[in-house]
Specification:
281 residues; FAS1-like_DH_region; Mitochondrial_HTD2; FAS1-like dehydratase domain-containing protein; 34% strand; 10-stranded antiparallel β-sheet; (3R)-hydroxyacyl-[acyl-carrier-protein] dehydratase activity; 10 strands; Thiol Ester Dehydrase, Chain A
């Protein structure tokens, strides 16, 4: 089967979307921002692009997990569970209120691996986003497909201990935050809103916080300390899930000599769940 799915590498798809005023207004409400203008042509925080370009698949074409079924654009990976593994994003220009944007997505790589929890397949998508004035952003996104959850307990992995932070904010993501973000992004993945499904089918103890939600709130915390700045580039890696309604911390280091700084979500046990290296400007 893996030999077949490698034939999907190189496939491309184009989707258009609009940075519409209602979306910007709702993101400002979600993030408690009062400094973002809603006038047509006003710049929007770069990282708010994460709510655009939903799949909007017909209801009849959704899988059990709430995602579009595989085999249309996404390759027919023979593993049932999926999660975001990481992403790398470079912003070239700020999106503006009212801009019509286009995203070209290419299946850049498909890589089977075997980890401590079983077989895995990594699918890397490369997104190029353009607007009225040219290139806006380029993103590489790694999606990890996993085996069905086993009845046996998962192997215990050593937690990644967090470094000392320059700032640290308590954060307990709520079901309302997850719902509002999923509604904005039209994300139907049930692990973010259906607690019974997340627990009984995928084997998680609680709702999973979207990786994009953790990233969003890390960036918002950073930009409160750097007013007037924008995220210019970042690389994110997911080490372990962040669970809904469980205390966590948004943390960051001071910038280094090159202007880079590490951000992370710290779980209640002190382990690092998501790590981001970013640059603002």
């Amino acid at each position: 089967m893996t030999g077949d799915i490698h034939e999907w590498v190189g496939r491309k798809r184009r989707v258009s979307d609009e940075m519409a005023t209602p979306l910007v207004r709702r993101m400002a409400a979600l993030t408690d921002r009062s400094d973002v203008a809603l006038d047509r042509g006003a710049p929007v925080p770069n990282h708010w692009l994460s709510i655009l370009f939903d799949d909007a698949a017909p209801q009849s074409q959704l899988g059990r997990d709430g995602h579009p079924t595989k085999g249309d654009f996404l390759p027919p990976v023979p593993l049932p569970r999926r999660m975001l593994g990481g992403r790398r994003v470079t912003y070239h220009a700020a999106p503006r209120v009212g801009d019509t944007l286009e995203r070209e997505t290419e299946i850049a790589a498909i890589t089977p691996k075997v980890g401590r929890s079983g077989a895995m397949i990594f699918v890397m998508l490369r997104h190029s986003i353009t607007g009225p004035n040219g290139l806006v952003a380029v993103e590489e996104q790694d999606t990890v497909y996993l085996e069905a959850k086993r009845n046996a307990p998962a192997p215990v992995e050593k937690p990644i201990v967090t470094p000392n932070s320059a700032w640290r904010e308590p954060w307990t993501p709520s079901p309302v935050v997850l719902f509002r973000f999923s509604a904005l992004a039209f994300n139907g993945h049930r692990i973010h809103y259906d607690a019974d499904y997340a627990r009984d089918v995928e084997g998680y103890p609680a709702l999973i916080v979207n990786g994009s939600v953790s990233t969003l709130f890390l960036f918002e915390a950073l930009l409160r300390r750097a007013p007037g700045k924008q995220i210019r580039h970042y690389e994110a890696r997911t080490m372990q899930p962040v669970f809904c309604d469980r205390p966590a911390f948004l943390c960051g280091e001071a910038p280094d000599a090159e202007g880079k700084q590490a951000l992370w979500v710290e779980a209640a046990d002190g382990a690092m769940a998501i790590r981001i290296v970013t640059r603002v400007g």
